[in-house]
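Weekly structure sync - notes
Attendees: PM, LS, DV (DV joined late)
Agenda: review two folding runs queued last week.

Item 1: First target. Sequence and structure tokens pasted below for the record.
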Amino acid sequence: MALSTHLFLAISLVLLSLDKAKISYLFLLFSLLLGYMFNIINATFIMINVLVFIIAILYQYKKFFILELALFIYALALFLHFIPGVNNIKVLDQVYASANSAPFNLYFSIDKPLGVFILFLLFPVLFKNTNYTKASVLKWGLLFLSPILLLCVPWYLGVIKLEISLPSWILYFLFSNLLLVALVEEAFFRGYLQQRLTQFIHPNLALLIASIAFGLVHYKSGVLMIVFASIAGLIYGLAYKYSKSLWSSVLFHYGLNLIHLVFFTYPFYLKH
């Protein structure tokens, strides 16, 4: 099945986060071969990315900031689906999470996660936090409440409504949102951008810039979504700042999305 492509891809991402890079890249190779077999990616896309990966490997021996910036921009282009030669699988087509939810499409992406492997070659501590700040129990307690408080804002504005649901397709969501969305997005914006910026500027400013950047990549969903995602980025950024592992921010990201799906109309309230 074509979905096995993304199973191998997800396994490779988890292995990469656990410092099993060699095995991880082997699983990535299997994933790309399956992607080609099932016509998810074409030969041109593979050749372009082989060249980019060679350049990223060479970067480890001769580190130029301009080259790092160029490779990050390319990884971001993968993230935004700007690189041609990809036909990501639509797993769910116009499904409804609940009675008053808007229709929802779910894609399993192969290009977006691929950028994480490039970032790892640029920045091997991608899944760690080498400059974490120990936080008090009170700060952690407030942080745990913040996803719920944040969701109360669109609820108050009428963008979403309270509506408990466990849609039949929830397993697809759980798999994709954890491993192909939350883990990937946190690697980009917390593991790389926030952590890398912290090496040059104040950690709080780095957190703010990474959060705004995270909001901006949601531009297709409108201004309100940019603002919402930026604030969510602050929550994820603080979870990352207060811990040694990227998985803390991943779980906060995943948790907020899961609360939204199960307890509110998802992705938003559809007025009848």
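Item 2: Second target, run right after the first with the same settings.
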Amino acid sequence: MPSTARPWSAAAGEAPIEPDADQARDWARDELSKRVYEDAQPGLLDRFWARVGKWLNELFEDADGLGAGPGVLILVLAAVVLVAVAILVIRPRLNASVKKRTEVFAHDVVERATDHRIRGEQAAAEHRWNDALAESFRAMVRSAEERFIFDARPARTAAEAGTRLAAAFPDHRPEITWIQQRFDEVLYGKGVAAEPDYERAAALDTALEAARPATPASAEPSSLAVPK
């Protein structure tokens, strides 16, 4: 019957156990199968985990010739520590990168809605339809902020902005949902906009400018004000 003992048990005052390579491999696999490691494996970390897995396999293959002893235990602990450190260092950076890439505004400089419209028109004149569509959506969001329909938040995502716009202009909800999804597709996905997309986005921008927002109850409580 295989041993299920752990490397040590300080509470029980037991002497350290010296594992062989097979036991060390089992202990490492048990440790790395815990939820904390599974939760750190979204799609963005697939390649990282594939490399870690390959490295661990090579490590334990080399350890097979060492036999039982402290050296094998040190290798196991080193492998687990390295993986844990990688999770702590890499995962927050990846999450921050994803968050940054999905924001409506690419930087913290606040520009007017008219600035975004002008930039969109320039992009359309140069047939840069992705940029033209994106600037149209940014103009809608900035205009709503300027009209105090909801507060200005530089880190707001397209989905969040779309939700706020749809709440303020329920009659235009289908078109707002469309532009929000297209914004994400062409800017952060593999979507490609065309001239009809820009014309549709520009028409929605014009319609929202002329529309009166819904009751203040749909706005954010911290930013209630009479729209201009």
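Discussion on item 2: The longest helix spans residues 70-101.
Action: LS to circulate a short write-up before next sync.
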